[in-house]
Amino acid sequence: MRPRPVVFHRTRKNPDFLSRARWHDYRSRCIYMVTLSAASGAPLFSEVTGWTDGKGISAGVRLLPAGVLIEKEIVRLPERYRVVKVLAYCVMPDHLHIVIFIKERTDTSLPRIVAAFEAGCTKAFWESFPDSQLSLAGGSLFAKGFNDRIVRGQGEADAFCRYVADNPKRYYLRKHHPEYFDRCRIIMINGREQAAYGNLLLLRHCVKCAVKVSRSLTPEETVSRERAWSETVRSRGVLVSPFISPGEKEVFRQAVEGGAGIIHILPNGFPERFKPSGREFELCAAGRLLLIAPVEYDTRKTVVSREQCLAMNELAALVTANGLSLAVRREPRPGSSRAAR
To answer: CA-to-CA distance for 256 and 238, rounded, in angstroms?
Structure first.
């Protein structure tokens, strides 16, 4: 039996944030990452501070009074619902993330658990600050609705937890080093339209080298290219490639370990709420990564074709060629779609 297509309930004002998956039973055993936004007029939940140590840039949060109350309610979730386990959470200045594990099927759905949590936080706030003059939109600390991401594959739960743990650092870096997270709707590379995310300055680096591992190369050609890649890493230059084949992935690993910059060419565009995580996040944080992708995002999962591989390798050659012509446009094209229909 073919699986039912993923269909979402959407609101007109914010088509993604209030989505619910029709195909999913929110009373079933599952792991979710839940995100709630602060309501208009709500106080800040926390402050994000950053510092530099021997490991680079680090960041953390200092909870403000409202955030302290919210954290207490998060900790109480497993006490109130025996089927709930909190795997990770982070209270940010204007939103919060909670990774929730529903350990077994329950009569209380995730939306009801979240609604009760929101009500508990708001009640605790007004009980603690009865004389507050704040005017909360909707009478709640939180904006209407919430976002959930459902664990559907192996390793996704760990990825969600890493994403939550990285949030303070990501927030700090976006504020103090926005050039490392530069999302451009359109860049023009020798007249070709592409989408990009990351450090655009890597395109202007004086040492760039395309990486293409092919069985059609002679042993002499392979040795010559490997030397060029090694020298690029040694000199902290920039390697450019789709990094698809095992050999290319090994070069990618060496570049990461060696401190080189990386321009990673992708076969598909960015989803609307794309954010780097894990290794990509760390490379962005260090200003060492630029992702280049097609303008359009195709929601279908497909195998990368030979034609796509050839096109990506051609783009890598363009990026590393002398006389690169580059133009940046931060606004999307009029009428362009962000997802395949």
So the answer is: 11
Beta bridge partners of residue 262, listed in sequence order: 239, 289
Between strands 8-9 and 238-241, the pairing is unpaired
Q: How much is the pTM? A: 0.62
Looking from the CA of 49 toward its CB, the CA atoms found within 13 Å total 5
CA–CA separation, 292 and 313 (whole Å): 12
Q: What would the two tokens of residue 152 be?
A: 């559907």
Q: How confident is the model at residue 313 (pLDDT cuts 50, 70, 90)?
A: very high
* Overall size of the chain counted in residues: 341
Residues 6+ apart with CB under 8 A from 288: 199, 202, 259, 260, 261, 262
The mean per-residue pLDDT over the stretch 232-245 comes to: 91
CA angle 326, 206, 214 (to 5 degrees): 85
Q: What is the pLDDT of residue 323?
A: 72
- Confidence grade of residue 184 (pLDDT, cut at 50, 70, 90): low
pLDDT at 326: 77
Measured from the Cβ of residue 196, the count of other Cβ atoms closer than 10 Å reads 23
Supply the pLDDT for residue 330.
58
- In a 3-state reduction of DSSP, which class is residue 183? strand
> Does the pLDDT of residue 309 top 70, yes or no?
yes
Strand segments, DSSP code E, in 179-330 are 182-189, 192-198, 208-210, 238-241, 261-265, 289-293, 326-329
CA dihedral 275, 281, 285, 287 (to 10 degrees): -90
